[in-house]
Amino acid sequence: MIINKNTELEAIKKTISKCEKCSLHLTRNNVVPGEGNVDSPLVFIGEGPGADEDSSGRPFVGRAGKLLDKMLKDWAGINRNDIYISNIVKCRPPKNRVPTDDEMKSCIQYLESQMLVIKPKVIVTLGATSMSYFTNKKKISESRGKFYDWYGNIKTFVTFHPSYLLRNHSMEKGSPRWYSYMDMRAIGVMFRALQKGKNINEVVSAINSRMKESGGI
Ligand code: SF4
């Protein structure tokens, strides 16, 4: 049977739009299920919607989202429409606090269902919450710029959340922004290689060598 990804994702979105599994439904204006190219080899996952996302129902449209768009375009050479973007929780935590473990547990089945439909080659985790869920790692400064295994053949690649970079402007070598630049350049290389159908393990190996040689890790 041929699976239509858009149909399956629409069904998941419909379920999310009515979800009341955790208390975040009480304060949300809109659910923010995710959007983008469902055939992309890369999916980007952040923590949760902020105020702009809650108002619009779209992920990464506020200041951090605009920075992400710019980093993708200028550093990775990727158009935002070429990738899929979502979050660990689909409703805004009040005052943009970190989602609780219970909220994440309640919501994660939606993200997992989305990933099973999209079947990306690499999930790029944005920030500590997403990193922690996908990799069990605790320190982003030690874990970023590296690949980890998730389910099946899906890899994860850890980098900073753009909202963290809004508070860190220095591009000095070794700064969070400089490391993000290195990560985004690597992400651009992996995107183009995977789009051409290159083997994921070969891509991982090439990126790892590149990061070591360039001082990115
Ligand atoms: S955050 Fe997730 S689990 Fe909680 S109400 Fe929203 S969609 Fe449901």
Automatic annotation (TrEMBL):
Magnesium recorded as keyword: no
UniProt-listed PANTHER family: TYPE-4 URACIL-DNA GLYCOSYLASE (PTHR33693:SF1), TYPE-5 URACIL-DNA GLYCOSYLASE (PTHR33693)
Catalytic activity: Hydrolyzes single-stranded DNA or mismatched double-stranded DNA and polynucleotides, releasing free uracil
EC number: 3.2.2.27
Domain Uracil-DNA glycosylase-like: start-end pairs: 33-185
Enzyme class (EC, first level): hydrolase
Family listed: Belongs to the uracil-DNA glycosylase (UDG) superfamily. Type 4 (UDGa) family.
A Pfam family of this chain: UDG
Coiled coil ranges: none
Transmembrane segments: none
UniProt protein name: Type-4 uracil-DNA glycosylase
Native source species: Geotoga petraea
Membrane is among the record's keywords: no
A GO molecular-function annotation: uracil DNA N-glycosylase activity
Gene Ontology BP, a term: DNA repair
Key words of the record: 4Fe-4S, DNA damage, DNA repair, Hydrolase, Iron, Iron-sulfur, Metal-binding
